[in-house]
Amino acid sequence: MDIGVPKETKDQEFRVGLSPSSVRVLKESGHNIFVETQAGEGAGFTDDDYRNSGAEIVPTPEAAWNRELVVKVKEPLATEYKFLQKEQVLFTYLHLAAHRDLTEHLINSGVCAIAYETVEQPGTNRLPLLTPMSVIAGRLAVQFGARFLERQQGGRGVLLGGVPGVKPGRVVVLGGGVVGTEAAKIAVGMGASVQILDVNVERLSYLETLFGSRVELLYSNSAHIEAAVREADLLIGAVLVPGRKAPILVSRELVKQMQPGSVIADVAVDQGGCIETVHPTSHTKPVYVEEGVLHYGVPNMPGAVPWTATQALNNSTLPYVVQLANQGMEALKNNPALAKGVNVQNHRLVHPAVQEVFPDLV
After folding, report:
1. Residues 69 and 101 in one domain
2. Bridge pairing between strands 287-290 and 215-219
3. 224 is catalytic
4. Element containing residue 105 per DSSP (H, E)
5. Which is nearest to 55 in space by CA: 74, 43, 76, 38?
6. Helix, strand or coil for residue 3?
7. Which of 95, 99, 295, 351 is catalytic?
8. Which domain holds residue 60?
9. Which residue of 48, 63, 238, 272 lies most exposed, with the fewest beta carbons within 10 A?
């Protein structure tokens, strides 16, 4: 099979769909890989690295896109819609619930669009291709939050870990899934005072075995959210409803009650965000001030650490890429987890969660 790897076009997105080691595995399986020139440079992979692994370096995006299978990291942008082709397979993160325009173009193109974030192992609720980036995003949320709490960055001037005689900063995490758990690990490691709120009591019990008394664990209801958010120095949105738009848990009125110079980092922004005042930003301009609070809304946070993120992503995606390359569309019949990743196929929106968001497109 001919496999294309275009260079990512999202603002300061330096990850790449396939690493040189993944290319080598696919080449050894008899496939042809076409990598756009400099696609891996930002992640530390040169064109020669890809050539030495068996790839052909192509000079234009079109030459990479014009293949049976296209492997990317982020969703196609408007400038890339023209490359979408009937019966082509696109394998990447899509987050269609937050992108109606993209959804419509995918339907019209006839492409088979498989989203990393909805590949789901049956009966487990595990999202194996979302997890590695969720781990990274959760850890980065605290790292970035700590930076923007610095006074020179516009924040309150709070050191999350505090010092003897001065109380530590307070980190509030909405959601105790992978993102929330990883954020809490970093915040605890920095010495912050940490609260996690979640609606799943079993998950809260698990988090107690993980953190013990180092983290305050609260059932997520409006009263607990309001009390926690008002006192937060750093508020992290870590809510995930697979395939669907994230629910709004924090209203504008509640954001107004936060301390001036506090920081919000909404990791759920790629699914619409769980905080009313958050909208997508970029690595070039990551924050803005709303109601006196700094808002960080970069939807591709792991793009900040592309060397780590590309390899972590490939560790999870490669077995599925190999199966698609070896078996074509039969892979969807043979692998139920991969079949659940299909969002658009044969000019139809097929994923149930995205159908709920855009019922008029069904």
Report:
1. yes
2. unpaired
3. no
4. helix 100-109
5. 38
6. strand
7. 95
8. 1-109+305-355
9. 48
Residue 343 burial by Cβ neighbours in a 10 Å radius (0-12, 13-18, 19+): buried
What's the predicted TM-score (pTM) here? Answer: 0.93
- Cα dihedral 213, 214, 216, 217 sign: negative
The verdict on whether residue 51 carries a ligand-binding annotation is no
CA dist 351 and 14 (Å) reads 29
Taking only the tens place, the pLDDT of each residue in 108-167 is 999 999 999 999 998 888 999 999 999 999 999 999 999 999 999 999 999 999 999 999
Could you confirm whether 31 is annotated as catalytic? no
- Torsions phi, psi for 92 (to 5 deg): -170, 175
> Does one domain contain both 259 and 175?
yes
Q: Which H or E run includes 226? A: helix 222-231
Give yes or no: residues 254 and 321 share one domain: no
Number of domains in the chain: 2
Three-state secondary-structure class, residue 299: coil
Nearest C-alpha neighbor of 350 from the set 277, 243, 227:
243
Cα 120-131-219 angle, rounded to 5 deg: 95
Amino acid letter, 128 = P
* 214 appears as a binding residue in the annotation: no
The 10s digit of each residue's pLDDT in 324-343 is: 999 999 999 999 999 999 99
Residue 30: partners with Cβ closer than 8 Å, 6 or more residues away: none
Q: Is 198 annotated as a binding residue?
A: yes
Residue 298 marked in a binding site: yes
203 is in an annotated binding site: yes
C-alpha angle with apex 303: 99 to 127, nearest 5 degrees?
65
Choice among 31, 99, 270, 351 that is catalytic: 270
Closest CA to 15 of 242, 341, 305: 305
Among 197, 239, 203, which residue's Cα sits nearest to residue 219? Answer: 197
Report residue 33 as tokens.
Answer: 């890989």
- Extended strands (E) in 96-169: 112-115
> Cβ distance 74 to 10 under 8 Å?
yes
Q: What is the pLDDT of residues 169-192, one digit of tens each?
A: 999 999 999 999 999 999 999 999
Say whether both 312 and 279 belong to one domain: no
